[in-house]
Design brief:
A hairpin with a 2-residue loop joins strand 16 and strand 17. With 511 residues, this protein is an alpha/beta fold. The radius of gyration is 26 Å and the shape is elongated. The protein has 17 helices and 18 strands. Helix 7 crosses helix 8 and helix 16 packs antiparallel against helix 17. The protein binds 5'-O-[(L-methionyl)-sulphamoyl]adenosine. 5'-O-[(L-methionyl)-sulphamoyl]adenosine binds next to strand 1, helix 1, helix 7 and strand 14.
């Protein structure tokens, strides 16, 4: 039986068009899902849309549509983006799915039956943009005197009857859990923020609203709809069949990794685990908060008009180069800036020059001088064995990096090997060996082909289509492309198809 691996993205609010920030979360999770599949895991990868609440209802009204018609339309656009980003998700959940109504109401009932829910009244501030409650003390006063949420979102004063979740009762247990499991929240700086917040004291949480209707009705009291975050967080278990804990997919709970943006870590690191504790369910093994992208130095926003449809970037640069750039350019966990100059620079240097040229040079020498057949390894020199050892270590090295979501470091390790390969080909000069020592030329080209096979195999999660083309050119059969297969060398004499360039160069300035 393969070990299981469950990875999730946040579910996206359907109040506007998908942008590069959404694509980023999706791609990061996809790389991990693909990596784990190649590493022998039984993977479940979930993404989807978050469709209830006042923010979405308001967006529907502004668009002159019913919430259902509006959410159907925008949810479809997120599904399209997921496909356009090459996502290998196993499921796409919508919080308007009947299965999700069932799961949310079942979770509610379970908490209520266990005595964790009581009826009270909420009096305080609410920010629709954040779908969050704020205390008076958390608000900030803008220079024009208007009070806003700490995120800058407008707030309104709300007084309404509300059900509460006894979240305060779980403060100590959650603190103890986070302290005992240093890997539970990453990166460390964010974990410390959560700890600081928890030490400040946890209050009970308002978990129902009465001012509007676009939500899941509270079981037994239909005047209330559930607070959208309660419904949203439940999606991660709905998708595994909750409340049926005998469902086939339930074996994937607890999740191995839940990726979120830094703005929504607190909901995932405080509300979600306390809800699970109250329901008697295990907590996810790890939450990781990534940073935010800006575009050419500016915050991404509709009003600035700089919302780039990720599909335009795919058209300009190709999907794999975009995926590579997003995970290579900034440390996962830190904020990053997208600029044309940065992407063109990376693609030309690292994809076209470093990797593309190494493959093209090696494979065309095999095509020209060895009748396009993979040569045997023969007797290896120290230079050969050092290079091969570095390439062979890649799956193990990457496993450790990616288990910490260190995508940039993982890619750097691969590029060290690629750069070493370029140094090797220059030093060994197989084009000169062709005359002086043809058997040695054959060995050098085999070493390079083996290096490229390892590199292309471990880069598949990042650049699935291009690496599949590279593996085709290296003569690797499609069913021999997972990490375990790297231990079996390809037979000497394997015929290779004619090599073709994989990564074009981009001219700076052109889109
Ligand atoms: N619906 C909630 C999540 C519920 S999960 C149970 C939500 N949706 S969102 O559409 O607003 O954001 C989805 C994800 O996109 C979040 O993780 C958020 O951090 C991420 N991003 C939104 N803008 C972003 C950038 N500019 N850069 C990087 N990620 C960004 O929050």
């Amino acid at each position: 039986m393969k070990p299981t691996y469950y990875v999730t993205t946040p579910i996206f609010y359907v109040n506007g068009a998908p942008h590069i920030g959404h694509a980023y979360t999706m791609i990061a999770a996809d790389v991990l899902a693909r990596f784990k599949r190649l590493d022998g895991y039984d993977v479940h990868f979930l993404t989807g849309t978050d469709e209830h609440g006042q923010k979405v209802e308001k967006a529907a009204i502004d668009a002159g549509m019913t919430p259902q018609a509006f959410t159907d339309q925008i949810s479809a656009s997120f599904r399209d983006i997921a496909a356009a980003m090459g996502l290998s998700n196993d499921d796409f959940i919508r919080t308007t799915d009947p299965r999700h109504h069932l799961a949310s109401q079942a979770l509610w009932t379970r908490l209520q039956d266990a005595g964790h829910i009581y009826l009270g009244g909420y009096e305080g501030w609410y920010a629709i943009r954040d779908e969050a409650f704020y205390d008076e003390g958390e608000l900030v006063t803008r220079p024009d005197g208007i009070k806003v949420a700490p995120t800058g979102a407008p707030v309104e004063f709300v007084t309404e009857p509300s059900y509460f979740f006894r979240m305060s009762a779980f403060q100590e247990r959650l603190l103890a859990h986070i302290e005992a499991h240093p890997e539970f929240i990453g990166p460390t700086a964010r974990r410390n923020e959560v700890l600081g917040f928890l030490r400040g004291g946890l209050k009970d949480l308002s978990i129902s609203r009465t001012g509007f209707r676009w939500g899941i009705p509270v079981p037994g009291d239909e005047a209330h709809v559930m607070y959208v975050w309660l419904d949203a967080l439940t999606n991660y278990i709905t998708a595994l069949g909750y409340p049926n804990e005998n469902a086939e997919l339930w074996r994937f709970w607890p999740a191995d990794l839940q990726i979120v943006g830094k703005d929504i870590l607190r909901f995932h690191a405080v509300i979600w685990p306390t809800l699970l504790m109250a329901a008697g369910l295990p907590l996810p093994k790890r939450l990781y908060a990534h940073g935010w992208w800006t575009i050419e130095g500016e915050k991404i926003s509709k009003s600035l008009g700089n919302v780039i449809d990720p599909r335009e970037l795919v058209q300009a640069y190709g999907l794999d180069p975009l995926r590579f750039f997003l995970l290579r350019e900034v440390t996962f966990g830190s904020d990053g800036d997208y600029s044309r100059k940065a992407i063109v620079g990376r693609l030309n240097t690292e994809l076209a020059n470093d990797l593309g040229n190494l493959a093209q040079r090696s494979l065309s020498l095999i095509a020209k001088n060895l009748e396009g057949r993979l040569p045997g390894r023969g007797v290896l020199s120290d230079d050969d064995t050092t290079l091969i050892a570095a390439a062979e270590a890649l799956p193990v090295v990457l496993r450790e990096k990616l288990d910490r979501q260190a995508f940039g470091e993982a890619l750097e390790e691969v590029w060290k090997v690629i750069r070493a390969g370029n140094g090797y080909i220059d030093r060994q000069a197989p084009w000169a060996l062709r005359r002086t020592d043809p058997p040695r030329m054959a060995v050098v080209l085999r070493v390079l082909a083996d290096l490229l096979r390892h590199v292309a195999t471990v880069l598949q999660p990042f650049m699935p289509t291009s690496m599949s083309r590279m593996l085709d050119q290296l003569g690797v059969p499609t069913d021999l492309r997972d990490f375990a297969q790297l231990r079996s060398p390809l037979p000497d004499g394997t015929p290779l198809p004619a090599p073709e360039g994989i990564f074009p160069r981009h001219v700076d300035g052109a889109a």
